[in-house]
Amino acid sequence: MHKRLETELPDKFDWQNLLTSLRDSFILTTRRKPKQLVEFLDTFDWRFFKASLCLTRIGNKYTLSDIYTEKIISEFIWRRKKEYRSACDLASDNLRKRFSQIQGPRAAIKIAELNCSGSNVQILNEDRKTVALLAEETISLPQDDSGNELPLKTILRLTPVKGYNAEFKKVRCTLEQLGLDRLAPAEPLILTALNAIKIVPCKYSSKIRTPLKPEQTILEAAVMLSTDMVKVMCSNEQGIIEDIDIEFLHDYRVTIRRTRALLTQLKGVFAPAESDEFKQRFSALGRMTNHMRDYDVLLSYRERYQKMLPPVLSHGLKPFFQSIVKQRRKEFIKISNYLDSDEYHTLMADWSKFLKETTLEQKNSHSDDNVVAFVSKRIMKRFKRIVRIAGKIDEYTPYADVHAVRIECKKLRYMLEFFAPLYEKNLSAPIARLKKLQTLLGDFNDLCVQSDALSGKVKRLTPKGARAMHTAAALGGLIALLSRDREEIRYKFKTAISDFISEENQLYFTNIFAGRMESGT
């Protein structure tokens, strides 16, 4: 079967003449299409687009379709006053599950919009069977500040109907005789919109993809990495201030940790005094966001917590989450105000200035070291430390010691991700092993943090009234269940740790990094 075809109509093209020519061979039914505003939505990190999906909104109707085939995947009508943002707000279980798999915790936000109007034509044979569909569509950008629309193009779309190939070819021949001989597969409408406003999809990533080179000095590489991390932080600031979704703060915090980890692990590269000062300033910034992130995590588990408890207890969680929402609001106001403050702008300006000037003015003990040689030494040192301390973890290890290993794993993973482009051998295998261990340690840590938060709330409850009793009972039940889950994770430590500190993995690290610790070659 033929694919839908498209061509851009030249200026002053005679649309009526085309219809007259088609009427010589076919029966036509024509319907004028009213102007519609089409909004295109995606998450900040382009999760729909990366899945080859397009989410559009026309009025209160949302449509999820394949970008390239235009096949409709899902549709729903949104009747709330506030725009659709989060998958958890969808009423249908199937829709909620589908959109959650795509969006995760991210919000759908408007990325582009177009005005579309024109005519739809059904092309019928003598038996009044539809053999093809023809559409004339005028596409423009909506009104700007001066009230004017910006016309982009008028396009002609020809869509075949299964089983009528001969008629489709005849329609196409008629179009070619009228000068429309450049019919080609249609460009997706979302690409037309993005190209018109000069937006490059998938440009944002929280991951660091700095194009380092093996011949660079460690100082040059460090400056490039740090500069790219400044860009990631700046990209997330407005999303935090507008409270669009919780991932803006998460990505922002991860970038702060990466910046601090880089400064910590590159001793002798940056000037010690300035390096220590910025570590302290970024550490204070990270601590300022701790409570809000903890509240975000607790609220993200609200539905799961309610399902964990029997109905007789779950209703006691409502007052708890109401208090979390209020506390989060206070933290949000504090952080959003700080991000808009002179103090914060000064921090970022000082850091950016330091990075711009540092390669010109600084000459520290390791500034001119080859990046590969320097990094290889630091990675092997960190890896050996993890092998030494991780092997001691078992189901009885105190939480503080488990947390210490988790922090060491984070630092090693940051180093591997920062400098992976410098190594010919793919680092995906050691990173995957490390990620598996990190995930367990992270889940264990989250359960500890959540249990502590719930225990703290129980201690602060006023021991009077049925409401307080119900809340205490619900929180007590949750603490018991989380403790059970935490202990189950402990038993999984052994396998993940054994895999990471195995002779095979130690040999893998040695082969990649040990031989490059001197010259970097």
Summarize the helices and strands and which ones pair or pack.
Blueprint: E1 5-8, H1 15-23, E2 27-42, H2 47-50, E3 53-58, E4 61-66, E5 72-77, H3 93-103, E6 109-124, E7 130-141, E8 150-160, H4 165-177, E9 184-185, H5 189-196, H6 218-241, H7 246-265, H8 272-288, H9 290-300, H10 302-308, H11 311-314, H12 317-339, H13 342-361, H14 371-390, H15 399-419, H16 428-460, H17 466-500, H18 503-513
Antiparallel strand pairs: 1-8, 1-9, 2-3, 2-6, 3-4, 4-5, 6-7, 7-8
Helix pairs in contact: 6-7, 6-13, 6-14, 7-8, 9-12, 12-17, 14-15, 14-18, 15-16, 16-17
Protein architecture, described:
This protein is of the alpha+beta class. It has 3 domains: 5-196, Hypothetical Protein Pfu-838710-001; 214-359, CHAD domain; 369-515, CHAD domain (Alpha solenoid). The chain is built from 18 helices and 9 strands. The protein has helices at 15-23, 47-50, 93-103, 165-177, 189-196, 218-241, 246-265, 272-288, 290-300, 302-308, 311-314, 317-339, 342-361, 371-390, 399-419, 428-460, 466-500, 503-513; strands at residues 5-8, 27-42, 53-58, 61-66, 72-77, 109-124, 130-141, 150-160, 184-185. The protein has a 9-stranded antiparallel sheet with strand order 5-4-3-2-6-7-8-1-9. A hairpin with an 8-residue loop joins strand 7 and strand 8. Helix 15 runs antiparallel to helix 16. The two termini are 56 Å apart.
